[in-house]
Amino acid sequence: MHPSLYLSQILLSYVLGAAAVPALQSRGCGGREYPGPVNPGFESGTLDGWTIVSGDAFGSSSVTNTSSFWGGPFSQDGKFFLWGYAQNGDTAVGQLKSSSFQASNVLSFLIGGGYDPDNVYVALVRDSDGHTLLKQTPQNDEALIRITWDTSAWAGQAVHLLVVDNSTAAFGHINFDDVRTGCAALGDNHLTFNVLGQANQPAAGSAEACSLYAADPLRPQFHYTPYQGWINDPSGLIQWNGKHHLFSQYNPAAPLWGPMHWSHAQSTDAVHWRELPVALQPPYPNNPQDTSGRYTGSAVRDSTGDLRLIFTDFTNTALHPGAVQEVVSTAASSQGTTFTLDSNNPVIAKPPANSESGFRDPKVFWDTIDNVWKLVIGSGDSVTGKVHLYRSTDLVDWTYVGVLFSGDGSTGNMWECPNFFPVGDKWVLFYGGRSLGWYHVGTYNGTVFVSESSGIVDAGPDSYAMQWYKDEAGRNLAITWMGNWDTDKWPSRINGWAGQQSITRELFIRSNGGLGSKPVSEVASLASGKAQNLGPKTIKSQATSLGSEQAARLQLQVDMKSTTASSFSLSLFSSAAESVLLTYFPGNHTLILDTTNAGYGQAGTWWAIIDGASETLDLDLFIDRSSLEIFAADGTVFTATVWPRYQESRGIELQANSGSAVFKGITLTPLGSSWC
Question: Boundaries of each Glycosyl hydrolase family 32 C-terminal domain copy (predicted)?
């Protein structure tokens, strides 16, 4: 059977909600099972069985038992692995060849290092003609990740693995370990690997989005992601002519940041998305080395009723000497899909004085204080971040008003993606600085903002560049990028994409005067099965299973007056090998998210104080294959990406410590896809 036909059966199992690995097993992973290469995991501590074909990238120092690097563990299997940097660093090039072996039905291995499909990869090569059958580049992370290949089309044929490093660039090396063949390639003990690898991804356009997006075990189903490529900041959020529009900073060429386009999707309910053509292209699309692009901005309905985008035009001044690096431009569309750049661009031709750190991410709003358009834009000097304020009557001619608000340096010397809007009788300002989202609530007189309270927008590890918009019902809605610039864990690069946006949130002023978030009510329409009412329930020290789900909403209501436990924990994405822990400590009202034992994702702990939970603690959680959003009733939110290693990492359990936890209600609702 041709590999594409065989893989289509594997991928169909995801579409139908089953695991892909059992599909492989059902076809007989061991039916044509042969030994793999000699020294498959380098456990000899040497390159025995491997041949240096060329170059000096690989040698005796390449095999190492080093267990960790600056960003965490390498996660090798056993003691030794091949570390491509160890011999001669990033600038060395070379190729390393395994011994010949007969292909089995299945092959898997661990890979890490720099993302470069053309120059850094592992290939399966047929001995008889030297033809490359399959290849995989790493994910731009030193840590190793498991790739699984369907090799049934070549079962019994003589093949070898070729480890290639033809890159002299930074991160131009490859890590490799633990080649497995046959049934052993599919899992550890009684756990089955998630089937990862670019070769397992169906081509864009080869099926409906509902099926394509279901095929990838890491891809969230009700969060917006690019099918291939990279996204970061949500941009241009607006409800226009009844439809919600979501634009994103986008690089279609690779799952890495690059020349910024604007991807475009629309929705009737801010929950179910449909892809539209790319809205903005970078100014120099024919030169992939030119990082000039269309950076973050906003969208409004202009006086003609058109959908107008206002954004940062970034120019790579190293390639375009004499250009202004960051200016503000605009484009408009009468039908909402094809955007025409304004002949007056740039509409703001240069930053004001004392903007050395940058000048980007304009957000436009209608100011009812003096009934004109206003624009806030992120900036900073060498010491503090700041937000500049402009005004306009026509969205084209802009006049500088002054500095709306500036900091003391503690939140960075460059503030990105500022948003400014009224909520009731208060004004809210939030922005990104030092890879965190910061908010202020206070007063505004038309020219200057005064902060009365402040805090962090999101308590979790994976939130940045949140953008606000007001919908036609008057709600203050927002979407955040589920990432930040400190995040170096993007395992989905293995499958050709990186970046996801949060579910749509509604913003409000909390009882303590801070900024709160809650899921937009329309998420209820994602329910794909009957809700399970699992409470009331009293939880003690023995772990209590709530079920197993990979895409679900979990709502908990805890009776704190009856709870005697010193703490209680919710285990998510749980299996015998990994889990995420969410623990609440009633004594100090602290909620802690712990991802130190959670798959391929960012390891760490994050916490927040929950207000108003002395009688009842309400939690609303959204689990989506590799992502997690946690909302507390007081407005606290945690956003995290998890990236489970195993198919079985879907368990949900509750456990109490030193007493009992009393739950008034527990509801688990399966959720479907935003693309179906």
Answer: 538-668
Relative to beta strand 497-498, strand 229-240 is: parallel
Beta-carbon count within 10 A of 529 CB: 12
Query: Which three-class secondary structure string do you get for 68-112?
Result: EECCEECCCCCCCEEECCCCCCCCCCEEEECCCEECCCEEEEEEE
Sheet-wide strand order for 326-333 = 293-301, 307-314, 326-333, 340-341
Torsion of CA 355, 301, 479, 524, to 10 degrees: 170
C-alpha span between 216 and 218 (Å, rounded):
5
How confident is residue 285, by pLDDT bands cut at 50, 70 and 90?
confident
Among candidate residues 370, 415, 366, the one with its CA nearest the CA of residue 388: 415
Q: 429 near 451, Cβ under 8 Å?
A: yes
Name the nearest CA neighbour of 634 among 459, 507, 517, 523: 517
Helix (H) or strand (E) holding 20: helix 20-26
Q: Are 238 and 469 in contact (CB under 8 A)?
A: yes
pLDDT tens for 462-482 read: 999 999 999 999 999 999 999
What dihedral do alpha carbons 446, 451, 454, 457 form, nearest 10°? 10
| Structural domains of the chain, with CATH | 3-200 (2.60.120.260), 223-502 (2.115.10.20), 526-670 (2.60.120.560)
Q: Which residues pair with 405 in a beta bridge?
A: 387
| Tens of pLDDT, residues 71-130 | 899 999 999 999 999 999 999 999 999 999 999 999 999 999 999 999 999 999 999 999
Residue 538 has pLDDT above 50, yes or no: yes
Find out whether 328 and 362 touch, Cβ atoms under 8 Å.
yes
Residue 203, C-beta contacts closer than 8 angstroms, at least 6 positions apart: none
- With a threshold of 0.85, does the pTM exceed it? yes
Residue type for 31, please?
G
Count, residues in the chain:
676
Q: 512 is written with which tokens?
A: 């303590």
Question: Is the CA virtual torsion 388, 389, 395, 398 positive or negative?
Answer: negative
User: Six-digit token pair at 78?
Assistant: 């056993």
